[in-house]
Amino acid sequence: MENNINTRRVFLNNIKNFFLYSFLSQFFFVKNLKAKNVKPKVVVVGSGFGGGTCIKYLSKYSKILDLQVIDKYTQIQTCPFSNLVIGNVMDYKDITFDINKNLEAKFHTGQIKYINPEKKQIYFSDDLSMNYDFLILSPGIGFKKNQIDGYSIEDESFVPHCWTGNKKILEFKKRLNSLDDGCSLVISAPEYPYRCPPAPYERASMIANYLMKKKKQFKIFILDSKNSFTKKEIFFNEWKKKYNDSIEWISKKDGGKIINVNDGVVTTEGGLKFSSDFLHIIPNQQASEIFHNSGLTSDDWCSINPINFEVTGSKDIYALGDSIDAGDMPKSSFSANSQAKMLSMNLVNKILEKDYVEPVFLNTCYSFSSNDRAFSITSWYRLNSQKNRIVSLGSKESNVDASDLDRLRESKEAHDWYENITQMIYS
Ligand SMILES: Cc1cc2nc3c(=O)[nH]c(=O)nc-3n(C[C@H](O)[C@H](O)[C@H](O)COP(=O)(O)OP(=O)(O)OC[C@H]3O[C@@H](n4cnc5c(N)ncnc54)[C@H](O)[C@@H]3O)c2cc1C
Predict the structure, then answer these.
(1) What does the alpha-carbon distance between residue 339 and residue 410 come to, in Å, rounded to a whole number?
(2) Which range marks the domain in which residue 354 is found?
(3) Which numbered atom of ligand 1 lies nearest the CA of 290?
(4) Are residues 83 and 131 in the same domain?
(5) What is the count of structural domains for the chain?
(6) How many CB atoms lie within 10 A of CB 398?
């Protein structure tokens, strides 16, 4: 009797082990198959600073993933250093790069209209579509409409805003070139948050640099929708030193926010009126249209899990760069590049079923006040204790009264940074 029971127990155990073994071997077989043969399709949208960095990093993992890239352009014109093109310090060709197609990835040219996260499908403006296993979105910035009465981004009679990378910068330069001696210019600076916080003030400096070189008298009014801006004291010092106070900043509280444009005359919230020869409106900003068209935003921006950059509530969609709410990080190429490295590393970790690395980030924003004078702010970031927000650990700004040599040194550092980042992405 005792023997029978033992035999039965052994038999049942054997059956249990057999099924357990079959289940486990099947599980590992599928897992192996997945790792070795069936590569997940990773689609990157955007070959700019965020997307371009992801592509460069992920193309090294072609053994475990099938990388596909979509951009509406075949050539990228960068926004960084575009102000130097306006200032005639650099040529348009110096900020224009072919997308590097010699990488282990498949490249597609097309404009995306929207994403369907449930179907895992990407829809193009010509009604074609593409599927994905993992989607990375870095399509840059979008613009808010109907913010100023009488102004529309699409109205080509206005000076182009040149806040995205395209050839309109050539039209901008043409208009600048046609200004007469004694001209007056108005630049409207947008509300926070927007792409590259110091760029409106760098643009004013570079316009001044250009007009001064052409020996023209001018006055630039910066009408601001904010009460302060980054590196303000340094910009003020530089404007005084280089442009003899030809640049005047009017804050929101002093009535600087533009509310209406009529027949070339702008009216501000404070009732001030300016008539100018060159009206340059930098529009208020939001996440790129793709996010809004696809229901991937809760407000103006796309919210993400900062550990892996997965879009909140949308499995297998990752976002980075200017369109996301990145906590304390500003919207810059440097930030997008830093985020891209972390996102890519943790996506590879996910595919290899490894643990996520807890991210840390860095950003440096250089600004030029003239050809050979630059200054910067550098900040470090990590996640807060709840791991749901990127927070600043501190920052360091150039000295307000730095010597000419220091400004020159920083301008060389800025050029080196630009060369390094564009080489890393596009060569
Ligand atoms: C005047 C100016 C000066 C700046 N200077 C600096 C600087 O000195 N340093 C710095 O760090 N940052 C600077 N920036 C900010 C910087 O340009 C952005 O923060 C950075 O480009 C963000 O990277 P991204 O990948 O989010 O977007 P982008 O680099 O803009 O890349 C977006 C890509 O997506 C593509 N795309 C967009 N929509 C679609 C679509 N529907 N379908 C297909 N493809 C699409 C675009 O063609 C583009 O290639 C500056 C910005 C401006 C405006």
Answers:
(1) 24
(2) 41-143+286-426
(3) 41
(4) yes
(5) 3
(6) 18
Q: Indicate whether 277 and 290 sit together in one domain.
A: no
Co-location of 219 and 342 in the same domain: no
Q: Find the CATH number of the domain harbouring 348.
A: 3.50.50.60
Residue range 57-70: average pLDDT? 98
Helix, strand, or coil (residue 253):
coil
CB 360 within 8 A of CB 49: no
Confirm or reject: Cβ of 291 under 6 Å from ligand 1: no
Evaluate whether residue 148 is within a structural domain.
no
Is residue 153 domain-resident? no
pLDDT at 245: 83
For the full predicted model, state whether its pTM sits above 0.90: yes
Do 256 and 296 share a domain, yes or no? no
Q: What is the signed CA dihedral for 290, 293, 295, 298, rounded to 10 degrees?
A: 80
Please say if the pLDDT value at position 361 is more than 60.
yes
| In a domain? residue 163 | no
For ligand 1, is residue 140 a contact (CB within 6 Å)?
yes
User: Rounded to the nearest whole angstrom, what is the distance from the C-alpha of residue 253 to the centroid of ligand 1?
Assistant: 30
Probe ligand 1: pick from 57, 89, 128, 195, max atoms within 8 Å of CB? 195
Rounded Cα distance, 378 and 280, in Å: 28
Nearest CA to ligand 1 atom 31: 48
In a domain, 118, yes or no: yes
How far away, in angstroms, is 164 Cα from ligand 1 center?
6
| Nearest CA-CA partner of 227 in 204, 205, 256, 207 | 256
Same domain, 125 and 181: no
* Centroid of ligand 1 to alpha carbon of 140 (angstroms): 5
Q: If you average pLDDT over residues 100-110, what whole number do you get? A: 96
Q: What is the pLDDT of residues 362-405, one digit of tens each?
A: 999 999 999 999 999 999 999 999 999 999 999 999 999 999 99
CB of 111 closer than 6 A to ligand 1? yes
